Model the fold of this input.
Amino acid sequence: MKFENSIQFAKSLDDADCLRKFRTEFIIPTVGGVEQIYFLGNSLGLQPKRTPLYIMQILDQWGHHGVEGFFRGEQPWLNYHDQLVQPLAKIVGALPQEIVVMNQLTVNLHLLLISFYQPSKKRNKIICESKAFPSDQYMLETHIKQRGLDPEDVLIQIKPREGEVLLCEDDIIAAMGQHKNELALVLWGGVNYYTGQVFNMQKITETGHKAGAKVGFDLAHAAGNIRLQLHDWDVDFASWCSYKYLNSGPGAIAGAYINERYHTDKKLQRFAGWWGHKKEKRFLMKPGFDPIPSAEGWQLSTPSPVLYAAHKAALDIFEEAGLDDIFNKGQALSNYLFSVIADINDKLAGPAIKILTPGNENEKGCQVSMLVPGNGKYVFDTLTKNGVFADWREPDVIRVAPAPLYNSFEDIWRFGKILELACREAN
Done:
């Protein structure tokens, strides 16, 4: 499709958008009655209007039944988890029994590494991204130290080539081949948080397995943003947060995927808690951990039904909207944003904005990262003053992520007008 940077064209795209009605399912921030342009789905998704209702159902059940709310009421809390795994399995491309909803992302990664990082004298290396999200860096550093190893000796960090921003797939693959005799684990981000670059997870998994390593992914910026097929790709494990594209609220309960071939492996190490014990024996309170033979066997503690409810409110919208339409619109939104930025650059004296995110649809999702040299902070501040929710990364990068469930093509056109004005003033 040939895009046009005009309000008429943007509105025509919105008129043809089969998901347009879902915008009314979310609370759009307003100032003085004017809806703001919220492009931070990559940081914290907007609140579904139904979320307070779902949470109040939990609170009412607590009030009426106390602890018996786990067993009584229209939706006993003991079985609430079952309502979450089916939609999540579709979103990440897994079998329902390979999904567990628990904890937060970094906690889950620590727990999963207990099972899937088993260093030996011969095999103890971990391949990861250089400059992965800081929480992943801290997790790896401290986890390796806890195993009695030195991160400097163990971590193999793949960085962009000199003068480049994006990671080269060939370099990732080559590193796995180079270290195949000492490689224990590949832990990679599905989408780079800084550039929005989407990685070929299927190829990374296949190559990692050929090297004799386990392969896992941090899907914080991928779940709900791009198509995933974790089971078909034969990924060993993965985890994600649910407060970004999954719109489940700040500090929302996270999710994890564990390939079904590990569910009954008695030799696999893991940390245990009573909620991962077989359900039919859980309340007998007997010694000896007997895990549920599914991903639920990795649970530790009693979950929060309140967090479950906020998650379900968001997942129900995904079910109603349909994944194909969601992912297709996400690509269309970022494609239109690429086009609008190109038009702005054509109008300005020289390219003011450099897009860091790859333009290929196989290598991007909703996020578009823009390098604005020189007066980038002025441009960002101007965007903020004019009602745009965006993200600033030092020293000169602005990240935006139009989300398909609540953003419109008109949002992108309005953003483009503000961005063009800001760039002109900055120059």
Notes: The two ends are 32 Å apart (CA to CA).
